[in-house]
TrEMBL record, chain B:
It comes from Allochromatium palmeri. Part of the ABC transporter complex CysAWTP (TC 3.A.1.6.1) involved in sulfate/thiosulfate import. Probably responsible for the translocation of the substrate across the membrane. Residues 76-279 form the ABC transmembrane type-1 domain. NCBIfam families: 3a0106s02, permease_CysW. This is Sulfate transport system permease protein CysW.
Length: 292, 294
């Protein structure tokens, strides 16, 4: 992408350069509408969080966000999200591999159902997982005799986060895997590499950026997840309470400032993740020669 | 993204399995496939089946009664209304954003694309919170709205705003890569032939992007109808008035009316299945469309 002339972002379109390439009509209208709608619906509302929290002094802000009960929720939300994303990276890669490399009955159906967590409302996922993993559920009743309680414990949070994160990994790795030239592996094999060496030395380096992107997407989504978690978590303070729930609890007590302070912490994390994901995608595009 | 990706034909897996260099030993193949399928069944298939089994646990009569309940019907109406407002708003935005980003060069383009994706990385709870901060009783515009007796918080406008926020990027992020891949030659040819802006959009661009557009709308609609966190914060949970279907599920569930909760949930699960079916159909159509064009 080349920029013939530096123009600040958001400048009025009439100052815009490279007039000669603009044969098509509608640029000022389309960009103007995009910027206005984006500002009204997303940017201005989001800025409300930061402006509201600015009414707090730094010690007040710190006292809210470092309260032990709030810190316990970070530990659970971030810890479980990280673990869930890691589980998804391993099993999501296997699922993507199976969908691209193997023929098996029902493959088309399974491929379509991988997107279920995107399409199924989170509240429905939440009560369904709770029904499955509760002590009297299909899976819970098998685990309970082994002394493993899933529903209403932090483990339940993990299960819900694995559910919602799975498609992110599969859908970022799958297209890269489909695009891989078989020549790479043929060359590796002809040079005497074992299948394991081909995977770790040839395939994994190409897949790694996409795998990390999927991991980061699943992680970012899981940290903010609410609907699928609250039913299965049990929501016991200091034990199985997630950060988004703390925000809701504070709102219900009309503690708007407290809710906003915790929201600021989560938003800053989201922005960092967004940046990281963009960098990962750029890395992935560079390594595979594929545009996003 | 998915429709743009579908334009590349999918290689047949048999190609890999027939090639000694790209196939695993039978037991590794069995291990990977088995693990993947067990994981799929545990985390995706069983929750889906559980919804329908739990919904019908107390028989068809309870199922039908739960769905015919006036509060449930009010929730259906409200959910349809919200989607009917939010989806077209984001559809128009998506076309405008994709037109400016994919067909023109300007500085800050990548940054703008990132900003459009922003709502996806914000927790739904925060999406609800920001509108409470703006329009709630103690919010910026709260007092002003209260004086004029305009109800936004705990009412339909707020539910729509929160839904628009969480479904904001769907159509745009689908169209941007698709329109970038298509380039601008066809539109430029239309300009040379004397077409005006509206004619170009209607006769050239929209027919070219129709599958991508439909794909984005399907996903946007599914999220709009199923959104829970954001809507839960702003709704106030007033039965029959500000209760969407997902919120109705929560209320029934918290009242230990499990069969009724799962009955309503099964409606949303059916919606999800229809969404996935349409999505696969659109991907297939788009691939076919691309094949006949080539």
């Amino acid at each position: 992408m080349t920029h013939p002339m530096p123009v600040p972002f958001g400048a009025a379109p009439r100052f815009a350069p490279i007039r000669q390439t603009r044969v098509l009509p509608g640029f000022p209208l389309a960009l103007g509408y995009t910027l206005v709608y984006l500002s009204l619906m997303v940017l201005i509302p989001l800025s409300a969080v930061f402006i509201k929290s600015a009414s707090l002094s730094w010690p007040e802000f710190w006292a809210i966000v470092s309260n032990p009960r709030v810190v316990a929720t970070y530990r659970l939300s971030f810890g479980a999200a990280l673990l869930a994303a890691a589980i998804n990276a391993v099993f999501g890669l296997m699922l993507a591999w199976a969908l691209v490399r193997y023929e098996f009955p029902g493959k088309k159906l399974i491929d379509a159902l991988v997107d279920l967590p995107f399409a199924l409302p989170t509240a429905v996922a939440g009560i369904a997982l709770t029904a499955l993993y509760a002590g009297n559920g299909w899976i819970g009743s098998l685990l309970e005799p082994l002394g493993i309680k899933v529903a209403f414990t932090p483990l339940g949070v993990l299960v819900a986060l694995v559910f919602i994160g799975l498609p992110f990994v599969v859908r970022t790795v799958q297209p890269i895997l489909e695009d891989l030239e078989t020549e790479l592996e043929e060359a590796a094999a002809s040079l005497g590499a074992s299948r394991r060496q081909t995977f770790t030395r040839v395939l994994l380096p190409v897949l790694l950026p996409a795998l990390l992107t999927g991991f980061a997407l699943a992680f970012a989504r899981a940290v903010g997840e609410y609907g699928s978690v609250i039913f299965i978590a049990g929501n016991i303070p200091m034990v199985s309470e997630i950060t988004p729930l703390i925000i809701i609890t504070k709102l219900e007590q009309y503690d708007y400032v407290g809710a906003t302070a915790v929201a600021v912490v989560m938003l800053i994390f989201s922005f960092i993740m967004l940046l990281a994901i963009n960098l990962l995608q750029a890395w992935s595009a560079k390594r595979t020669g594929r545009n996003r | 993204m998915a429709v743009a990706a579908a334009l590349n034909e999918r290689p047949d897996a048999r190609r890999y399995e027939a090639n000694a260099a790209t196939r695993e030993s039978p037991w590794i193949r069995r291990l990977i496939l088995g693990t993947a399928l067990i994981f799929f069944a545990l985390f995706l298939l069983m929750p889906l089946i559980a919804v329908f089994v739990e919904a019908l646990r107390k028989g068809w009569f309870t199922y039908i009664t739960a769905l015919a309940d006036p509060d449930a019907l009010a929730a259906v109406r409200l959910t349809l209304l919200i989607a009917a407002i939010a989806v077209p708003l984001n559809l128009v935005f998506g076309v405008a954003a994709a037109w400016s980003i994919a067909k023109f060069e300007f500085r800050g383009k990548r940054f703008l694309t990132t900003l459009i994706d922003l709502p996806f990385s914000v927790s739904p709870v925060i999406a609800g919170l920001i509108f409470v901060l703006l329009f709630g009783a103690h919010g910026w515009f709260g007092a002003w709205l209260f004086e004029r007796d305009i109800k936004i918080i705990f009412a339909v406008p707020e539910l729509v705003l929160a839904t628009v926020f969480v479904t904001f990027p769907f159509v745009a992020r689908e169209l941007i890569p698709l329109m970038e891949a298509q380039g601008r030659e066809e539109e430029e040819a239309a300009v040379v032939l004397g077409a005006n802006g509206f004619q170009i959009l209607w006769r050239v661009t929209l027919p070219n992007i129709k599958w991508g557009l439909l794909y984005g709308v399907i996903l946007c609609n599914a999220r709009a109808m199923g959104e829970f966190g954001a809507v839960s914060v702003v709704s106030g949970h007033i039965r029959g008035l500000t209760n969407t279907l997902p919120l109705h599920v929560e209320i029934l569930y918290n009242e230990y009316q499990f069969a009724a909760a799962f009955a309503v949930a099964s409606l949303l699960a059916l919606l999800a299945l229809v969404t996935l079916g349409l999505k696969s159909l659109v991907e297939w159509k788009a691939a076919q469309h691309a094949a006949t064009d080539a």
